[in-house]
Amino acid sequence: MADIRGEPFLAHLMRYHVHRGAGHFILSVGYLGTQISNFFGNFFEGVPISYAVEKMPLGTGGAVIKSVSHLKSSEPFLLINGDTFFPVNSPNLKEFHLGTNADLSLALFHATEPSRFGAVDCDKRGRVIGFNSGNAKLGQPANGGVYMLSPNILPNLTAVDIPISFEETIIPALIASGYRVYAKTQSASFIDIGVPADYATAQNVIFN
């Protein structure tokens, strides 16, 4: 709900994805979540919103697990963080996801600072062979927190104990279990509004 030019950051983020064909939002909310649900209600620019409400912190993985019951389609779905802006073209990511027959696809960016972002190692075909394998060096592919998931992996997600981290536990476990995890590097910039410098930058970003 951080203010960006008179609107919550989340509104800019959701509008970006409305323009790229989003047909349903599932917002995972916890502490002070009613501030979000009261503001947005059940629709955003004509797109329906469902809320997955955490009564206790579930971790990023637990939030995904709780949210999947609200899915209305068996199509691959996009998973993003609500406090970062990484302008990935989701239709193109879905095309890549389907083309590689992936179970999970990651959008990567080139690290703009050393030792801040988690490195992602891929083979020549784009299959992920190392995730969060230390800090990404300047210019090295790093995790952008934008994912495309196929519903076939959901039964395995719902079987785990929570709270649990999506990035630190679930993704490495999927890779270790032989699931098809692929990654595509994007040319877009990554903004994390939890970092003061990035929050200042976000005030001048065009979200469209």
Radius of gyration: 17 Å
Q: Taking strands numbered 1, 2, ... along the chain, how are they ordered across the largest sheet?
A: 6-11-8-12
**What is the CATH homology-level superfamily?**
Spore Coat Polysaccharide Biosynthesis Protein SpsA, Chain A
CATH architectural type: Alpha-Beta Complex
Count the strands? 13
Span between N and C termini?
Answer: 18 Å
Q: What percentage of amino acids are in beta strands?
A: 25-35%
**Top CATH class:** Alpha Beta
Secondary-structure element series = EEHEHEEHEEHEEEEHHEEH
How many domains? The number is: 1
User: How would you state the average pLDDT, rounded?
Assistant: 91
Which term fits the overall shape?
globular
CATH third-tier fold name: Spore Coat Polysaccharide Biosynthesis Protein SpsA, Chain A
Q: How is the biggest beta sheet arranged? A: 4 strands, mixed
Number of helices: 7
Secondary-structure class = alpha+beta
> Poorly predicted ranges (pLDDT <50, ≥5 residues)?
none
Helix share, percent = 25-40%
Descriptive overview:
This protein has helices at 9-18, 33-40, 59-67, 90-99, 154-157, 166-176, 196-202; strands at residues 3-4, 7-8, 25-29, 43-44, 47-53, 77-80, 84-85, 104-110, 118-122, 128-135, 141-149, 181-185, 191-192. With 208 residues, it is α+β, with helices and mostly antiparallel strands. Strand 9 (118-122) and strand 10 form a beta hairpin.
